[in-house]
TrEMBL record:
NCBIfam families: PRK05427.1. GO terms for cellular component: cytoplasm. Pfam families: DHH, DHHA2. Its cofactor is Mn(2+). This is inorganic diphosphatase. Keywords: Hydrolase, Manganese, Metal-binding. Its EC number is 3.6.1.1. GO terms for molecular function: inorganic diphosphate phosphatase activity; metal ion binding. The keyword Manganese applies. It catalyses: diphosphate + H2O = 2 phosphate + H(+).
Length: 306
């Protein structure tokens, strides 16, 4: 019976490409491993898979009795619902250390870099395993996505060096151009239901016992969302009530202007205002320089709840 690799719920490109890349590495090391996913894929992720010739990883929601690697998260609320009934073999992640615990020893690669695929590239190098062209291309695109084309404050020298190395393996001459093509696909919002946009890149966090949902929608021009904001805000309210959440926040990120407008629905908006030292106007606020959920949004929010 093979092992599995799975990322977080509402998977993004890093989760999916990490699962593909790590499953190949582990299989090459004599440990048959299969990539899996916990949800449907975004247009951006489908663009990457189509570009490099991959099928969707298996949609698998239950892991009771299975052995698996966790990638791109270590928070219980973001993982499989029956994770307590599975054997976790390892965690590879670039976020804060979450609350997943194990009863047996495990492999951990956790680094403060911009993307999980950067860490997996380090793992390939450590094990001396050659990366296939198609996997290298997918890993490269995931890093460009997570680092917002190197604009994110989470981006490190290691991310940039990995992209350059992976581009050479994949035979990509202009990775910046391909990255922009990817973000154009990511910015395609016309005709998409509000719920699909809100959940395109959405994660729940347990903050001192309060459930907080944070989504992010990255576009190359925020103006394309102007007529959608009321609908998005209404859907945030519905999502909050459906999940019994304390707060739901949607970051509308303009990657060219390098900032985000926050749409907020909360039981106590003062917590959000305190976290970012802002005043909400009609439950919205623009903040220059906000590009990273994990580095610029989650930490101050957690401190604010404390």
């Amino acid at each position: 019976m093979p092992n599995y690799v799975v990322g977080h719920k509402v998977p993004d490109s890093d989760s999916i490409c990490s699962a593909i890349a790590l499953s190949y590495l582990k299989t090459e090391l004599g440990e048959p491993t299969v990539p899996a996913r916990l949800g449907e894929l975004s247009p951006e992720t489908m663009f990457i898979l189509d570009r490099f010739g991959f099928e969707k990883p298996e949609l698998k929601l239950s892991y009771a009795g299975e052995s698996l690697y966790i990638v791109d998260h270590s928070d219980r609320v973001q993982g499989p619902d029956d994770i307590d009934d599975a054997t976790i073999l390892g965690i590879i992640d670039h976020h804060k250390l979450g609350d997943i615990t194990t009863s047996t020893p495990l492999e951990c690669w956790i680094r403060p870099v911009g993307c999980t695929n950067t860490i997996i590239k380090m793992m390939y190098d450590f094990e001396g395993i050659e990366i296939p062209k198609d996997i290298a291309g997918a890993m490269m695109m995931a890093i460009l996505s997570d680092t917002v084309l190197f604009k994110s404050p989470t981006c490190t020298t290691a991310d940039k060096k990995c992209v350059e190395a992976l581009a050479e393996i994949a035979g990509i001459e202009d990775y910046q151009e391909l990255g922009m093509d990817m973000f154009k696909v990511k910015s395609a919002v016309e005709g998409t239901p509000a719920r699909d946009l809100v959940l395109r890149d959405f994660k729940d966090f347990n903050m001192k016992g309060q459930l907080v949902g944070i989504g992010q929608l990255e576009v190359i021009d925020l103006a394309m969302l102007d007529e959608m904001k009321d609908g998005l805000h209404a859907d945030l309210q519905s999502l909050k009530e459906e999940g019994n959440r304390h707060s739901v926040i949607l970051l509308l990120t303009d990657i060219m202007k390098e900032g985000s407008e926050l749409l907020v629905v909360s039981d106590d908006t003062s917590v959000i205002e305190k976290a970012f030292d802002v005043t909400l106007t009609e439950n919205r606020v623009w903040i220059d320089g906000i590009l990273s959920r994990k580095k610029q949004v989650v930490p101050p929010l957690q401190d604010s709840f404390k």
